[in-house]
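help with this.
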Amino acid sequence: MVENKKGLDSHVDEKALAVRAVDSGSTTAEAQLAEKKLMWKIDCLILPILFIFYFLAYLDRINIGNARIEGMNEELHLDVDNRYNVALFLFYVLYIPLEIPSNVWLKHARPSLYLPGLMFCWGVITMCTGFVHTYQAFYGLRVLLGLFEAGLVPGVIYVSSMYYRRFEYQKRLSVMFVATSMGGAIGGLLAYGIANLSGDYGFLGWRWIFIIEGAITAFIATLAPFIMVDWPEQCRFFNAAERDLIRARLVDDGGECRMDTLNRDSLRRILLDGNIYLGSLTYMGLTTSGLAMSFFLPTVLKEYGWTSTEAQVHTIPIYAFTLGLTLVMSWASDWLQHRYGFLMLCSLMATVGYGMLLNVQSLGRGARYAACFLIAGGGICSGPLAIGFLSNNLAGHWKRAVGSALQVSAAGFAGIIGSVMFLEDEAPIYHTGFSTGMGMVWVSGVAATLMAINVWRENRIRDRGGRDSRLSLPEEVLNNLGDDHPHFRFTL
């Protein structure tokens, strides 16, 4: 949690607080009702606004795919020398290196001001994209868009995780991540409607896509600070008793496994944690498919014989399918308190889809379209599962802040791969794109399997007392171990 002048410096016996607020609550109907009301209040305050943030970020990132088939490529000469792929790539030049610093800055800021500020800036940049006349100017705006979107996803994950226990979080995270699917579906629907404005005030349809969607983002950003939560100790929407209960529930979930101080020892523990890198590879591998389909799906569908308008419309059922599947998988994952098996199911779906499209010449249009459902489903549905798998196995605020940012940074590399894997001169077969996508899916599956083996093995060692020697460490070290604390148990 962020350091707060009023709260975090006080010497509160947090474990005793947890026992009073949580354990006693389980034996009295009044306390159970109070906790239930608190969870409902948290959900209403956090999920809608963060869903909107993530939806708009995704919409403003992928609308380039919709604009491409509405005349943008021809007017800006992006159909020469794979310039469209370069434009996709440039988004990640600043996006990747700034995700971790952004979460570090966020820890010392008010989320209700910091995240809407980023959102307003990228909304204005999206609007400006509708007025460019050269591909060089377009390139520059793509770099700036990545600069301001860099802090959004890790920030959303970090802020929201400070309010929920581990096995309450997955289904909430899925509600935010279905914004990906809804962004794709509504993006296609908006593009279909906005394209009809082509010619108004001398602007082609692709320009209106950027102008209108950017204006919506900037407008909502100006309203967001009035309704968005801050860190639990700062949030004006909760009274003192509610803030104590939020804090106690998290302490009860993680016990002594804290990491509130970032020093040389804690930084070493973060950077040498193999689970962070395996979790990042898991996220990166499958996210490559989700991002690539977002960038190129309208183009791929147009290659299957549909017109530009028909291709925009045919993206909608694919994203509607991924939306429903994401919610079902995430709720089932929380109910079973298991992540790994669902990640492997996503890998299997995407593998089958890519396998079909690698034999695209022998398939009819209906089968090709069905394969797109499988690839998008596997790639997009895996996002909240992969993040939940790693987040559940990180304890301590600094560990979670840096670890989640490192994992989301891996999605930046996925975006780079996804932006260059579909080459224009390979249309409509796209052998490089489909084979690369399948390879990245397998990377994800192998990494998830290695992480599952690692956490299973570590739990067995701790159950035998193999890490109990750490209990003799000085108190200030013991209380800053995070998930290296012997009492922490990992989850599959």
The two ends are 25 Å apart (CA to CA). The domain at 14-484 is CATH 1.20.1250.20 (Growth Hormone; Chain: A;). Residues 29-76 form the longest helix (48 residues). Residues 37 and 81 are 58 Å apart (CA to CA).
